[in-house]
């Protein structure tokens, strides 16, 4: 294998190792094989082109053609010319795949499923990186520059993952880059002739020679580069931007208007309901026609995890999902004895754009165009491909009408439900627990406690001017001020129910809306709403309404209306004769018909409430992508700007440190002369350290045509440094800083404006800092080499002594 082929293999290996960081972006590893195909395609086509003696600049074009054919075979074979050439039809197919990929990136937070569009973009990115690495390292013989595209590939998961990717993937990618550099160095050295090999070392050892340092140049350089790469792998990742929620992801803010065309998008379902409720323009976004007297809530997303900061949807990837075309199963927990009727609704969505369907609960059948799926636990219906804008669909749902006694006498929820839907952070407002104890301590059943919580909250004031939020701090303010809107009301009731051991969660969607003369219901932006759901065995998830909206659109359900009074423990025992009370034994509960969960559902439920898994933000639409991309550009621009100013800042720090350390006359003169030297070098004047200060000063004065004042200042500095170097006692010296400043102005006046700006932003003198640092690192690595060689030699002598003793 010749050196060039070896270098091509190491270029491909470096790219593959760099792709390890992409693993954190996906939920499984099926993305890796097509990426491997892209890397192999680049390596194979490049090697074939180079062996064909094609011009060097033609090789990258051949590799790009190979990538185009590979993409056509994978994603557009049916419309390709001859089955593999990218014709017009294939190009259109590839464009559609790319559009789906960008749409999915905008909608879903990492880690994501391996959807075709996203994988296609990943394959394209990896292929382009492999092409750049091969072109730089093999075709153009600039292996060091190949680190830039490799670092760019690592920056992608760092930018989109909230917690970054850690140091291990960076170290693996760094190892690949190191291997590429060593392969390039070996190939270059091999052109000089036969390198010093092991045989020569063996012969030297046989003669009794034991050097303190291994003299093989490649081994020594390799250790230096390896140690430096390892250090960078450990130090650099913490410094890279693992931005909260990702640069591209971000959590948006509530129901909002999109960036163009007035399209309404849903980004985060509860973070900022307030914005839509207070919009001056109250636009209709949904029209409902139903054969029921009231369409009820239109639910879009269920939030079943409270992390202390906000309510969020639990991790979708941990749950099962099914196609709605196959129908929805009976709702969890709904027993046969609960009254219900099937309701048919026709729903038309206007400019609301979201990947989740607004639906009455519980829906049992949906007739909708597109690829729509439902979550088996929440029954939220969503799509990876479609959105709701302009969508018309029909839904059959159950209108459940439980009796009060069915709720009051409901058996305990399954232990799994209690474990999953009563989790709360340790830190909660103390006042919340105190108020809860006050209003529920004399009540027996979960239903009566829920009713008391709801009625107590409805004594609060509905106020859209309060600050948005549903975390612990917002709840403390809500309890203190006793005013808020649906976000605080729903969040507080769900938390209080969980404190009582009642499974609870929060739903976000739309309230009923207003009935129009033609019998349809109009749902507007101002109907955006959040409400709690509590679980009762035998009935299932039951909505409550703690929010007292002034417009009357959120009355409590019949089973939880204000004229119902909670029964105390004594009242319930008297009514039930002491034997009909609710079973409070959570460990071995008895459940009503239909309240149990299948083994698969229980497994998914346990996975869905894993606190170590971060919840994705479903429904991050094109508005999020449009705002995320500028954020990335701004971040890159700020980073580049910061790097641009690093030399200038370093030069300023050196100057200040130099003057600060000139405590005595001798050091003061040396500092002044060093400052003149750096100023001259920054402005592009030649500086020969072998020349005397007087000769150097004469040359500078002639080249810059210094004025009389500037030349006099320069000579004062020269005389001071000569006394400092050669006189036994330099004597007292006046402050030379003013002289140095005048010399600086004189030298700068003789240069163009471009040179002066370059001296300020990119001062050449700061390169000395890098050289000095490199020398110190090299000295340290040489010390390690000496220690290693000494230990190896000592181990050899000990081993030799042992063999002699044995013999």
Quick structural overview:
With 807 residues, this protein is an alpha+beta fold. The chain has 25 helices and 20 strands. A six-stranded antiparallel β-sheet has the order 10-13-8-3-18-17, with no helix packed on it. Strands 4-16-19-20 form a four-stranded antiparallel β-sheet. The chain has a three-stranded mixed β-sheet with strand order 1-2-9.
| Poorly predicted runs | 194-216, 233-272, 574-630
Q: How many domains?
A: 4
Instruction: State the secondary-structure class.
Output: alpha+beta
Main sheet specs:
6 strands, antiparallel
Query: What kind of assembly state do the chains in view correspond to?
Result: single chain
E-strand count: 20
Spatial strand sequence of the major β-sheet: 10-13-8-3-18-17
C-alpha end-to-end distance? 44 Å
What descriptors fit this protein?
807 residues; alpha+beta; 4 domains; six-stranded antiparallel beta sheet; four-stranded antiparallel beta sheet; 25 helices; 11% strand
Could you explain the architecture of this structure?
A six-stranded antiparallel beta sheet has the order 10-13-8-3-18-17, with no helix packed on it. Strands 4-16-19-20 form a four-stranded antiparallel beta sheet. With about 800 residues, the chain is an alpha+beta fold. The chain has 25 helices and 20 strands. It folds into four domains: about 5-195 and about 215-240, no CATH class; about 255-610, no CATH class; about 665-760; about 765-805. Helices cover about 50% and strands about 10% of the residues. α3 packs antiparallel against α5 and α4 crosses α19.
């Amino acid at each position: 294998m010749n050196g060039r082929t070896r270098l091509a293999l190491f270029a491909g290996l470096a790219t593959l190792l760099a792709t390890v960081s992409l693993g954190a972006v996906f939920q499984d590893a099926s993305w890796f094989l097509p990426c491997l195909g892209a890397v192999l395609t680049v390596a194979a086509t490049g090697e074939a082109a180079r062996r064909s003696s094609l011009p060097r600049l033609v090789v990258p074009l051949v590799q790009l053609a190979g990538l185009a054919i590979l993409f056509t075979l994978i994603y557009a074979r049916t419309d390709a010319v001859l089955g593999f050439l990218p014709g017009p039809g294939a190009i259109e197919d590839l464009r559609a795949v790319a559009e789906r990929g960008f749409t999915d990136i905008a909608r879903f937070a990492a880690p994501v499923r391996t959807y075709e569009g996203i994988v296609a973009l990943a394959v394209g990115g990896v292929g382009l990186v492999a092409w750049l690495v091969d072109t730089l390292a093999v075709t153009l013989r600039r292996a060091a520059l190949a680190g830039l595209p490799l670092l760019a590939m690592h920056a992608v998961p760092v930018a989109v993952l909230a917690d970054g990717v850690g140091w291990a993937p960076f170290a693996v990618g760094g190892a690949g880059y190191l291997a590429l550099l060593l392969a390039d160095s070996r190939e270059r050295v091999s052109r000089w002739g036969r390198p010093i090999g092991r045989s020569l070392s063996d012969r030297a050892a046989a003669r009794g020679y034991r050097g303190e340092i291994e003299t093989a140049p490649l081994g020594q350089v390799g250790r230096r580069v390896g140690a430096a790469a390892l250090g960078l792998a450990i130090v650099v990742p913490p410094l890279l931007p693992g931005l909260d929620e990702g640069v591209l992801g971000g959590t948006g803010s509530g129901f909002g208007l999109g960036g163009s065309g007035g399209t309404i998008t849903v980004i985060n379902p509860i973070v900022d309901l307030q914005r839509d409720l207070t919009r001056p323009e109250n636009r209709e976004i949904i029209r409902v026609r139903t054969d029921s007297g009231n369409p009820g809530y239109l639910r879009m997303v269920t939030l079943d995890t409270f992390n202390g900061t906000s309510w969020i949807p639990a991790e979708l990837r941990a749950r099962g999902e099914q196609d709605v075309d196959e129908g929805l199963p009976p709702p969890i927990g709904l027993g046969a004895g609960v009254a219900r009727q099937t309701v048919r609704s026709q729903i038309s969505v206007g400019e609301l754009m979201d990947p989740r369907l607004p639906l009455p609960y519980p829906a049992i059948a949906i007739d909708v165009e597109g690829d729509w799926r439902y979550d088996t636990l929440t029954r939220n219906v969503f799509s990876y491909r479609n959105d709701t804008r302009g969508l018309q669909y029909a839904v059959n749902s159950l209108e459940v009408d439980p009796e009060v006694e069915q709720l009051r006498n409901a058996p305990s929820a399954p232990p799994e439900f209690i474990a999953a839907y009563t989790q709360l952070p340790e830190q909660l407002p103390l006042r919340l627990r105190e108020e809860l104890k006050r209003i529920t301590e004399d009540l027996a059943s979960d239903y009566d406690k829920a009713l008391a919580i709801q009625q107590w909250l409805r004594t609060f004031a509905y106020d859209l001017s309060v600050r948005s939020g549903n975390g612990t701090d917002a709840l403390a303010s809500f309890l203190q001020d006793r005013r808020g809107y649906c976000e605080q009301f729903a969040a507080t009731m769900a938390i209080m129910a969980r404190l009582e051991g009642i499974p609870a969660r929060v739903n976000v969607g739309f309230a009923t809306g207003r009935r129009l003369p033609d019998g349809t219901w109009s749902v507007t932006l101002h109907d955006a709403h959040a409400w709690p759901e509590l679980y009762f065995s035998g009935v299932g998830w039951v909505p409550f309404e703690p929010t007292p909206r002034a417009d009357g659109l959120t009355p409590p359900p019949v089973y939880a209306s204000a004229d119902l009074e909670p029964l105390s423990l004594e009242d319930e025992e008297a009514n039930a004769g002491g034997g009909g009370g609710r079973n409070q034994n959570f460990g071995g509960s008895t459940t009503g018909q239909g309240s149990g969960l299948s083994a698969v559902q229980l497994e998914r439920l346990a996975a869905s409430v894993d606190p170590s898994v971060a919840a994705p933000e479903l429904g991050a639409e094109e508005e999020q992508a449009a705002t995320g991309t500028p954020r990335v550009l701004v971040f890159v621009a700020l980073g580049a700007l910061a790097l641009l100013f690093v030399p200038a800042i370093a030069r300023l720090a050196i100057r200040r440190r130099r003057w600060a350390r000139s405590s005595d006359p001798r050091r003061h003169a040396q500092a002044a002369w060093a400052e003149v030297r750096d100023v001259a070098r920054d402005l592009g004047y030649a500086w020969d350290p072998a020349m005397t200060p007087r000769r150097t000063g004469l040359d500078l004065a002639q080249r810059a045509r210094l004025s009389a004042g500037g030349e006099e200042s320069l000579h004062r500095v020269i005389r001071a440094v000569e006394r400092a170097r050669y006189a036994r006692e330099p004597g007292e010296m006046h402050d030379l800083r003013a002289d140095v400043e005048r010399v600086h102005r004189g030298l700068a006046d003789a240069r163009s404006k471009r040179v002066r700006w370059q001296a300020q932003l990119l001062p050449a003198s700061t390169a000395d800092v890098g050289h000095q640092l490199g020398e110190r690192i090299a000295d340290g690595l040489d010390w390690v080499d000496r220690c290693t060689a000494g230990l190896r030699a000592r181990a050899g002598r000990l081993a030799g002594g042992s063999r002699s003793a044995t013999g």
